[in-house]
Design goal:
269 residues; alpha/beta; FAD/NAD(P)-binding domain; 2 domains; three-stranded antiparallel beta sheet; 19% helix; 26% strand; disordered C terminus
Amino acid sequence: MRKFGATLDIPTTVQEVVEDEDRFRVIFEDGREVTSDVVVLATGVRYRSLPAAGLDRFQTSNLFYAATAQEARMCVDTPVAVVGGGNSAGQAALFLARTSSRVHLVVRAAGLGAGMSRYLVDQIQHHPRINVLLSSEVVEAHGGNRLEAVTVRHGDVLEKLRVGHVFVFIGAAPATTGLKVDVARDPDGYILTGAEAELAGARTEGSPRFSLETTIPGVFAIGDVRHGSVKRMTSAVGEGVSVVRQIHEYLNEGRHSRVCAGAPTSRDT
């Protein structure tokens, strides 16, 4: 970062982004402010957690919100629980079943077909190491320094399952709660960019909107917080690289000249 003259401020929380003539004022929760020609929103998402008693104790050790090769290596010959009824949960269950001795797929719905693709349902139902628990939910976690078991409720029946790890796939929400910035969002709160942002709001006359630009010229969004993004780390990294190029083009074209009040207009540069 020293090579590029960047300043890192960690940890801190941005409270508001304000248009101020040709620039933006970024206001932190402690009252400090910085100004910039461009703002990039890369706040990601917050994964929904399970309200199971005792599970928070294993948040940094045995509780995961993704199932990659790294997590699979930690679960070799170990029984695990996968919670969720969507495609992500189904894909995770099949992937983990390659190395785990047993995968308990805990689904709140009465059937897998409600939120999962047919091809996944067929594979899961015929997999010898996947145990599907329908109309069920994890209500408690047990263990000392490490997770040892979870209690699952099926109606009025409680069942204790021996597991070493829990994988949660019950959805996520964009991490923009409390952040004040007047960009257009979809009904779920994800930030609109590119062509979708252009349809949602005014744009600088005579010049196309960049693919990662929001409804406010000069404010870009990348990664999981962006509507339509692929919720994967490699995709977010790629967008981070792409936005640098778009910012350079934006600044070189003089598009950061804006009129704060009313619709954006073009200016001579």
